[in-house]
Amino acid sequence: LRQQIKDVKQTLQFEIEQLKSQLDMYRSVFPLHVRGSQADIKNGRKTTAFLDSSHLRQRAQGISAEPQDLRNCERHLKKFEKTDRSRDLIRNAILDNDFLMHLEMCQIREIVDCMYPVDYDAGVVI
């Protein structure tokens, strides 16, 4: 009987950890705020109470690129003129990409500004 209790306890603990992980994932996607009963009315305005994020589990920060040295940070990017139509086309293509869509808008603007046209001959593998 004790072994069964121990097994059930381990199974439940594993499920709890999985649910906490899923909850952290959803919290990272959706804004943390509370509506309804916890909303205060001050000066005739309805305000929304924000959750204190100190109770959230700390997550490791990911590294998305090689560290940059100071020389690379000081380098200015060369920008190329484009029509508004070209800008919109490039921006929409980036936003439709599963990986690039997670970039911040300022990063997308920099990419769009720095892109330039390249012509390739027919039949060339890119």
Report on the structure:
Residues 2-29 form a coiled coil. InterPro entries: RmlC-like_jellyroll (IPR014710). This protein has 126 residues and is mainly α. The chain has a two-stranded antiparallel sheet with strand order 1-4. A two-stranded antiparallel sheet has the order 2-3. It is 44% helix and 8% strand. The chain is built from 4 helices and 4 strands; from the N terminus they run αββββααα. The protein folds into 2 domains: 1-55; 73-121, no CATH class. The radius of gyration is 25 Å and the shape is elongated. Mean pLDDT is 75; it is low at 34-43.
> How large is the count of helical segments?
4
Q: Please, how many domains?
A: 2
In percent, how much strand structure appears in the residues?
5-15%
- Tell me the span between the first and last alpha carbons: 66 Å
The beta-strand count equals: 4
Q: So what's the oligomer here?
A: single chain
Low-confidence stretches: 34-43
What is the string of SSEs from the N terminus onward?
HEEEEHHH
Strand order of the largest sheet: 1-4
Shape: elongated
Helix content: 40-55%
Question: What value does the Rg take, in angstroms?
Answer: 25 Å
Structural class: mainly alpha
